[in-house]
Specification:
It contains twelve helices and no strands. By secondary structure, it is mostly helical. It starts with a helix and ends with a helix. It holds the Pfam family T2SSF.
């Protein structure tokens, strides 16, 4: 790569940065309606996204507060491009993440910016060693930025799956503890309170939220229905529905909980057997494509060498 191309590439980056700075100057930027009326609606303003997330003594706090409005506007544009706010909100609830869709979009932008910055560093190093085309390097940076944005969404999906596995693993134990508490003479609310104080985990946190809703005036049946809607797991929905039906119809709650715990353990055993069968099939791939060719090569290579020596 010639010095002229390197200079043009760096000059274009500098010009783009100066253009952004100039366009964000106060006397050139037209304020929005929200910015004009927000000083008169101080109590109704939107909460700061970064309050409670970053320590005010951190050097990053001033940077985040400085670029907060720009990040919010960029997050709104990203939301208009990607869409699916209801799906994202649903997945955040299932992952147990107490964040809004706007905060999640800002995280996606930060992931994309970090990936773009990493690609930019790689491009500058490649340009310094006179390798690579400037256009290709810029496309490489943009692709990394897009992958960073999409990577945060993929990571959210993995967070949902991990939390669902933890909930399913904790559910049989919690159901048996509830059955023991109810059989000992405690009521449903008292049994839930004892379990939340005795256990630690995601399911205990969800049950604690159910108790908080009941203390706020919500009925236990509706709070359990809300738990089933939040988690989205079939086993947990069946567990919550069984509790709700037992409370409404007066069915012996201890027997229902024991039966549900046994069903959940049996479902987990079946899933483990199915997972083992799938992994057994997957293990055939390295055997067929790696081990078997090497074995055939070791078996036939001496014969091929011997035939070659005899023919020679």
């Amino acid at each position: 790569m010639s010095p002229m191309l390197v200079g043009g590439f760096l000059g274009a980056l500098l010009g783009a940065g100066l253009l952004v700075v100039v366009l964000r100057l106060p006397f050139l930027r037209r304020p929005t309606v929200d910015e004009r009326i927000s000083p008169y609606l101080r109590d109704l303003g939107a909460p700061d996204v970064f309050v409670g997330v970053v320590d005010s003594r951190s050097p990053f706090y001033a940077i985040l507060r400085l670029f907060g409005p720009s990040l919010r506007s960029a997050a709104a544009r990203l939301e208009r491009i990607l869409g699916g706010a209801n799906t994202v909100r649903r997945r955040l609830q299932r992952a147990g993440i107490q964040r809004t869709v706007e905060e999640f979009r800002i995280e996606q932008l930060l992931w994309g910016a970090l990936a773009f910055g990493a690609g930019l560093v790689i491009s500058i190093i490649a340009a310094a060693f006179d390798t690579g085309d400037p256009v290709a390097l810029m496309v490489f940076c943009l692709v990394l930025g897009v992958l960073g944005v999409l990577g945060r969404d993929t990571y959210l999906t993995s967070q949902v799956r991990r939390r669902e596995r933890r909930l399913l693993a904790e559910l049989p134990t919690v159901a048996e503890l509830l059955a023991l508490s109810v059989a000992a003479g405690e009521g449903p609310a008292a049994a839930l309170d004892r379990v939340t104080r005795s256990c630690r985990g995601d399911l205990a946190d969800e049950l604690e939220r159910v108790l908080a809703e009941t203390r706020a005036g919500e009925s236990l049946v509706r709070a359990l229905d809300a738990l089933a809607d939040r988690t989205g797991l079939l086993a947990l929905s069946r567990f919550a529905d069984g509790l709700a039906v037992a409370l409404e119809r007066g069915t012996p709650l201890a027997d229902v909980l024991r039966a549900q715990a046994a069903d959940i353990r049996e479902a987990g055993r079946r899933e483990l057997i199915e997972s083992g069968a799938r992994r057994e099939v997957a293990m055939m791939v390295p055997v067929i494509f790696l081990v078997l060719p090497v074995t055939i090569a070791f078996a036939f290579y001496p014969g091929a060498v011997g035939i070659r020596l005899i023919a020679g």
